[in-house]
């Protein structure tokens, strides 16, 4: 199955994400609040693009049941993960104006661009493969962190949001969709896309930890 192959091919990258200092500090409660705040702002930009990708993939999808699932995924994302973050934003004094004034950081821009590229070059299966590590890796990180928890309530709430049953159900549907769109012909390309998304997931933690900025000048 495609998901087994992709998961096996990215084991080392995923382990690096699970052991990343951002995750370790979040679990220990030592992650600076300013770092988490910046992560939330960048991640909001990311999640908006994620929803748009689902919409675009749904528009292009020729299989009605899969198109319906992609549309449902977009709705679930907006009513679930994106909506959940509103309580975090209130606690961290993150306003729509602050989000709008914060440029998308280079790694975030590159990751979301990779997702659009995956749709452009490998169609709906490419988008599905590119989006899958986002769900799946966070579910695994949430599961691992849940066993220890975090002493900081907002970090614990973040962990809880990835172990909630609706997130787990969405995960199962994503895996089934990925296996449905994979074929012997496209599987190698999908695996490459999945791997690259996994690499960007790892770099996203580092981006947040570094408060990454455009080094020369922000493109307008
Ligand atoms: C970058 C990133 N990757 C994954 C997730 C979990 N949906 C997220 N919120 N942000």
Automatic annotation (TrEMBL):
Pfam families: TENA_THI-4
Keywords noted in UniProt: Hydrolase, Thiamine biosynthesis
Family the UniProt entry places it in: Belongs to the TenA family.
GO molecular function, one term: thiaminase activity
Matches recorded under NCBIfam families: salvage_TenA
Gene Ontology cellular component annotations, sorted alphabetically: cytosol
Enzyme Commission identifier(s): 3.5.99.2
Purpose of the protein: Catalyzes an amino-pyrimidine hydrolysis reaction at the C5' of the pyrimidine moiety of thiamine compounds, a reaction that is part of a thiamine salvage pathway.
GO biological process per UniProt: thiamine biosynthetic process; thiamine diphosphate biosynthetic process
Cited SUPFAM superfamilies: Heme oxygenase-like (SSF48613)
Organism per entry: Levilactobacillus senmaizukei DSM 21775 = NBRC 103853
Catalytic activity line of the entry: thiamine + H2O = 5-(2-hydroxyethyl)-4-methylthiazole + 4-amino-5-hydroxymethyl-2-methylpyrimidine + H(+); 4-amino-5-aminomethyl-2-methylpyrimidine + H2O = 4-amino-5-hydroxymethyl-2-methylpyrimidine + NH4(+)
Protein name according to UniProt: Aminopyrimidine aminohydrolase
Pathway(s) served: Cofactor biosynthesis; thiamine diphosphate biosynthesis
PANTHER family named in the record: BIFUNCTIONAL TH2 PROTEIN (PTHR43198), SI:CH1073-67J19.1-RELATED (PTHR43198:SF2)
Subunit description: Homotetramer.
Gene3D superfamilies: Heme oxygenase-like
Domain spans labelled Thiaminase-2/PQQC: 7-210
């Amino acid at each position: 199955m495609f998901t087994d192959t992709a998961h096996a091919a990215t084991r080392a990258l995923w382990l690096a994400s699970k052991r990343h200092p951002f995750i370790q500090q979040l679990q220990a409660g030592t992650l600076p609040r300013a770092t988490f705040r910046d992560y939330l702002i960048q991640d909001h930009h990311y999640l908006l693009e994620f929803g748009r990708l689902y919409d675009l993939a749904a528009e292009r999808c020729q299989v009605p049941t899969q198109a319906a699932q992609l549309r449902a995924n977009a709705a679930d994302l907006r009513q679930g993960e994106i909506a959940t973050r509103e309580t975090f934003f209130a606690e961290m004094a993150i306003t729509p104006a602050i989000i709008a004034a914060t440029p998308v950081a280079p790694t975030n821009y590159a990751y979301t661009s990779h997702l659009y590229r995956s749709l452009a070059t490998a169609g709906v299966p490419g988008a599905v493969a590119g989006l899958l590590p986002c769900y799946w890796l966070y579910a695994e990180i949430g599961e691992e962190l849940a066993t220890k928890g975090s002493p900081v309530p907002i970090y614990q709430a973040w962990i809880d949001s990835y172990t909630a049953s609706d997130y787990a159900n969405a995960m199962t549907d994503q895996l089934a969709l990925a296996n449905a769109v994979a074929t012997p012909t496209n599987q190698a390309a999908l695996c490459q896309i999945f791997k690259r998304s996994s690499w960007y997931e790892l770099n996203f933690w580092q981006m947040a930890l570094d408060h990454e900025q455009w080094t020369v000048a922000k493109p307008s």
